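ARCHIVE CARD
Drawer: 12
Card no.: 0347
Subject: one protein chain, sequence and derived structure
Cross-reference: see card 0346
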Amino acid sequence: MATRILIADDHPLMRAALRQSVTQSLPDADIVEASRFEEVESALNKGDPPDTVLLDLHMPGMNGLIGLALVRNEHPAIPVIVVSAQEDPATVQRAMEYGASAFVPKSAPITQIGDAIQAVLDGSLWAPETGNQGGEEADLAAVVAGLTPQQLRVLGGIAAGKLNKQIAYEMGVAETTVKAHVTVILRRLGVHSRTQAALVASRLAFAPPPPAGEG
């Protein structure tokens, strides 16, 4: 059976470049594309699941590391390769802490992307060399990894500055359900207000890099 790969990026040119790198490494690969996080979730939940996902951290609906944590939470058997224009050591380390199996800068040559894909399909991890971060980020990653999918969606809404009623409407649940999730999230994060939770969430849904290239 052909290897199935999901390419998720909101920039058509970047998806084309990633498709080229995949076909160079795996000529017979079955490639599926997504331009929004909702399309990623649809592709993961319908039909044959992909063998791996090439995931942009900044596509619409993604909420940065919150979206990555949600994918890993709901589909732990599917390895994720983060492909990002934001390639500083801290971002690389954080993506790996939050469950990515590989991190490839968008500036990397096509051969590196192919190497990362092969490594992940073989069950290995792949990332550029980075310095080590302190334990605080690892602790936060562990807390986020312990949230349920619904709690992660609520956290994503908080990061986007949405009201509880907006989050409830988008999730198709009662506002009281969202409030209950917020209470759990505050306790898990060790904060006492929604504003404090929003500050923590904003660290996870970090802003995309300046529009000098792909997001």
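Annotation on reverse: Strands lie at 4-8, 30-34, 52-55, 80-84, 102-105. Residues 4-121 form a domain with the Rossmann fold fold (CATH 3.40.50.2300).
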